[in-house]
Amino acid sequence: MASGNSAGQDSRWRVQDPGDGTMYADFFLQPEKRRRPRYKHCKQPSSLRRCGQAIVLYILIWKYLGFVYLVFGIVILAALSTMLVRSMSLATAVLALSNSFASAHGSHASEQNPSSDWATRHMQEEHHIDSFDAGSFFTLHDYDSSGAWTPDEVRKSYGMDDDSNSGVTEERKQQALREVFALFDTGNSGVITRDNWMRLISAGKRLPDLGFGPGHHGDIEYEYEIHHFEKFHGEDAKLEDLNHPEDIEHFRRHDEEEDAAERLEQLEQMAIVEANIPQKFLRRT
């Protein structure tokens, strides 16, 4: 067999003699690949350019991140400052309210009139609103949104039908309504229009205090919440704390309403309600 695989004829093969008389052939890479130096990545010219670009990119990224962190820190500081200011304002308001409630607690006497203007008193005591204008007052008490106050709406706004005025005669209530309409219904139309209201308020006319109180025109739940519970108890009140006469009366009225609702439900389930049949139609045994 021809010795075509000798080291002299093919540089890919090499014959080695380990010294013990055994010969073997070893495959190895071509000489030009063996002599190629194994430089590190960044030592070659093209790699140097890539490394430089990478370094510049890293620097830009770090600068951008630094700017982002700076902006984020400023936003956080601004938010904390706003929260601190609001907390201080809220604390001041709560302190003022607690002082006023503390002075009022323990006495269930009639509330003092904070203003000679009845409308201002009404808004403060019935709606907890201190700042308002004539237009908003009119809209708030225009219950049917018709653009005019009817006698029934004025009667409701003044709280004439509230339990606190149950002892007032109907004649006195009608007289009070005539006084209000004499001021603001100059055309005797039977209603107080928004235009007349705005014009006469600008001229200095005001709703008079007719002696019916601040104008309780909410339902029993609203009146209890705004006039008693918020002033003398608060959200953290326990059931055993609700022992004032106002609390007892409120719960009594709730019980009456629940009992009435249960009786009505029972009657609706009956096919014939004998109690509603006149006596003359009942068969006598």
TrEMBL record:
The segment(s) forming the EF-hand domain are 172-207
- Keywords for this protein: Membrane, Signal, Transmembrane, Transmembrane helix
One cellular component term (GO) for this entry is: endoplasmic reticulum-Golgi intermediate compartment
Q: Does the keyword Transmembrane helix apply?
A: yes
* Lineage: superkingdom: Eukaryota
Molecular functions (GO terms): calcium ion binding
TM region positions: 55-80
Keyword Hydrolase on entry: no
* PANTHER family reported for this sequence: NUCLEOBINDIN (PTHR19237), NUCLEOBINDIN 1 (PTHR19237:SF20)
UniProt protein name: Uncharacterized calcium-binding protein C613.03
What organism does this protein naturally occur in? Aspergillus udagawae
